[in-house]
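Q&A log
Question type: sequence-to-structure
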Amino acid sequence: MQTEIEDYYRQGGETRRLDAGAGRWEFLRTWDLLQRVLPAGPLSILDVGGATGGYAGPLARHGHRVHVVDPMPEHAAAAAALPGVTAAVGDARALAEPDAAYDAVLLFGPLYHLVERGDRLAAWREAARAVRPGGLVVAATVSRFASLLDGYVSGHLAHEAFARMLDHTLATGEHRNLGTDRRWFTTAYFHRPDEPQAEAADAGLDFVRTAAVEGPLWMLPVLDEVLADPARTAQALDLVRRVEGEPHLWGASSHLLTVARRPA
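Response status: OK
Response body:
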């Protein structure tokens, strides 16, 4: 990992990123999708780039066997402390896992920190190798347009440095924050909505579906109020569930999930 990425994650933001606001909405939607995408368990799941176990913990509580691989030793240690979860330090491009050892592989972090397409394909191929024939690979990507939308809503576009960075991101997909403002994320690659499907195919996987995670609702100024009300949260989940597969809305979501299957 590049030094700036390591420095960013050593600030400890992953520990509570999914607890509130847009992060909480991301978790609720991702969890909703996982419950519908994954087959009936118990499953053996490899969580590559699983950070501190934000999804590994709930998956283990639901009876699955989960192994986290993350490049940050601090993340792996935190994940390994969760009941039912094992963890190790590793690289998504060269997994120390046996062939066809897992029922499902999650790529919820690697693809948006691998700026070069060849590195992303290596991560896809390693996931395809580690999952059993007929098993699923579920990958998260960040939308090419996420920083444009967040930059406007959050007021970051008032900063000339952010505006220059956004121009480069929109043109190339490369998000290069070499400054000191941690609100602007760190070095990353932001996909166009059709790119993950092509990457999965190039890695030898069969495309199953793409789904918007947050949909456009992650930009709501009253999102915290919605999430504090169970009835409004349930309504929001139902609304986005109904349009999660609509390609015309994918670019308005901060994250997308791409589901692919290793040929049987």
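Response note: The CA atoms of residues 31 and 58 lie 9 Å apart.
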